[in-house]
Each structure stands twice: as structure tokens, then as C-alpha cells.
Amino acid sequence: MREKLHQELQDMRPALHRFALLQLRNAVHADDAVQETLLAVLEKPDNFAGKSSLRTYVIGILKFKIIDLLRLSGRESALADLGSEEQSDSDLIDTLFNAQGHHITPASNWGAPEATLEQQDFFRTLELCLEKLPPQTSRVFMMREWLELSTEDICKELGLTTSNLWVLLYRARLRLRECLDLNWFGQQT
After folding, report:
1. Same domain, yes or no, for 183 and 100?
2. Which of 97, 109, 139, 163 has its CB surrounded by the most CB atoms within 10 Å?
3. What does the CA dihedral 133, 139, 143, 145 come to, rounded to 10 degrees?
């Protein structure tokens, strides 16, 4: 039993590290967060009640380790130069919306979202889509939607204004929608 747990945790480690690195922007801190997470699981394996998948349980622990590190660090990041994103965002908006601001094509039917979320392949595709986003955009999206940090906390951590944050979230959602439509939902029939 314990050997199986060790192997499953070892298999998860690269994905956990990528997620932590995306949020913390420091390889040493990301390694620390992953190590602390894995140690917490191994020290008290009986805490995993099996009500969710092991991956969900471990990511939940990592999520709180990352939040703790972000709050403890108190560091502020400078706003990344968004100039390089402007052209590609304009192109994306032009392909999705007409001159009146309406969608050119309606959103594809995504089926039953609850069932889709249970599929591991979906999460792999989502991870790939997040990796394609510019680093600042991806980080802001994950802080808001995955770590569930407040607008105030994200702005303070990254040195953003509220309007900058909402622009980045808007861009992230547009790009994720396009990526998921192409790479996941477009494959569903």
C-alpha cells in the first residue's frame, strides 16, 4: 500500500512542480512547496479518506502551501510588458467578435461540464492551454480561479491595478476558450 502511494506521488511530482512554479516564479520555492505537500501526504496517509482522487487531494494541499508562501513572501512583482500581447489579442478578438461586439460563431456545445471535469484528459488539455498563455496572464488566471485569491490579494501580490487584473483575466478566458474549443471540445462528437 505504502509503495503504491510513493509511486503515485512520484508520478504526480512533475505536474505539481509545474503548477507551483507557475505561481511562485521561483524554482527553489516551487520545490519547497511540492516537497512540503508530498511530506504532508506521506506523514499522514490516513488523512486521505478516498472521497476524491488522490491527485485532487494532493493538489488541494499544494494549493494551500502556495497560498501560504505567497502571503508570507510579501514580495511584489512588476507588471510585465503587455505590448507583445496586444497584437495577438486584437487578432483573437477580431476572429471571435464582429464589429457590433457579438460572437461571430456561437460557443460550441460543451456538453455536461460536470462529466467533462471528471475526465483526466481534460485537465491535461487545460494544463497545455494554460502553458500556452503568456506567463503573467496564466499566473493571474490561476491565482483567481484555482487558488481563489481575492482581487485585492492578487493586485497586491503582483503590483497590478484592478483594471489591469480584469484585462488579464479577460484575455486569459478568451485564449483558454479558443484553445479548449480547438483542442478539446472540437474533438468531442
Report:
1. yes
2. 139
3. 0
Q: How far apart are CA 104 and CA 72, in angstroms?
A: 45
Q: 121-156, pLDDT tens digit by residue?
A: 777 788 888 888 998 999 899 889 888 888 998 998
Q: What is the pLDDT of residues 1-12, one digit of tens each?
A: 678 888 888 988
Q: Using alpha carbons only, give the angle 92, 127, 122 rounded to the nearest 5 degrees.
A: 95
Q: Which domain holds residue 161?
A: 83-187
Domain boundary among 73, 97, 115: 73
- In 128-163, which positions are buried (b, 16+ CB within 10 angstroms) versus exposed (e)? ebbeebbebbbbbbbbbeebebeeebbbebbebeee
**40 and 116 co-located in one domain:** no
Using N-to-C axis directions, what is the helix angle for 54-73 and 2-24, rounded to 10°? 40
Q: Quick one: 67 and 131 in the same domain?
A: no
Spatial contact of 170 and 137, defined as CB atoms under 8 Å apart:
no
Q: What is the CATH number of the domain that holds 105?
A: 1.10.10.10
